[in-house]
């Protein structure tokens, strides 16, 4: 993925926008080595989800999904927000229905 292919990031860096929805970015305060270890675990866990689905193994699927969730929480993409100003989490909301509507209209040509 090149920079031009990357989804737009809100001006405050808290979210990316995919198909009009906000998705929380990872915590920018994570040390690079920590972030990489968590990303590596996330990718391995996602591969484990796929493998469990192919095998039709519900127990392995549950365990793999738990690993995905733990990695995303570690990255700051789920769980408690990583910012400290009290702003609520807007993950999964349509950008056009949030405080980012004006910015998004300019980026997406109206969404």
Task: From the structure above, extract its key features.
111 residues; mainly alpha; two-stranded antiparallel sheet; 45% helix; 7% strand; globular
How do the helices and strands line up, and which of them pair or pack?
Elements (H helix, E strand, L loop, with lengths): L14 E4 L2 E4 L7 H24 L2 H18 L25 H8 L3
Helix pairs in contact: 1-2
Shape descriptor reads globular
Number of strands: 2
Radius of gyration over C-alpha positions, nearest whole angstrom = 16 Å
Give the amount of beta strand, in percent: 5-15%
Overall pLDDT confidence: 94
**What is the straight-line distance between the termini?**
22 Å
For the biggest sheet, the summary is:
2 strands, antiparallel
Brief sketch in words of this structure:
The protein has helices at 32-55, 58-75, 101-108, and strands at residues 15-18, 21-24. The chain is mostly helical.
Write a structural description.
It is a single chain. Helices cover 45% and strands 7% of the residues. It has 111 residues and is mainly alpha-helical. A hairpin with a 2-residue loop joins strand 1 and strand 2. Helix 1 packs antiparallel against helix 2. The longest helix has 24 residues.
């Amino acid at each position: 993925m090149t920079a031009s292919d990357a989804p737009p990031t809100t001006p405050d860096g808290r979210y990316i926008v995919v198909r009009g929805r906000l998705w929380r970015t990872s915590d920018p305060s994570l040390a690079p080595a920590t972030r990489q270890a968590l990303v590596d675990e996330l990718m391995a866990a996602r591969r484990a989800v796929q493998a469990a689905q192919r095998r039709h193994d519900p127990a392995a699927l549950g365990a793999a999904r738990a690993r995905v969730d733990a990695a995303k929480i570690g990255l700051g993409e789920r769980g408690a927000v990583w910012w400290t100003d009290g702003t609520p989490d807007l993950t999964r909301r349509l950008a056009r229905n949030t405080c980012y509507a004006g910015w998004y209209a300019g980026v997406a040509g109206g969404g």
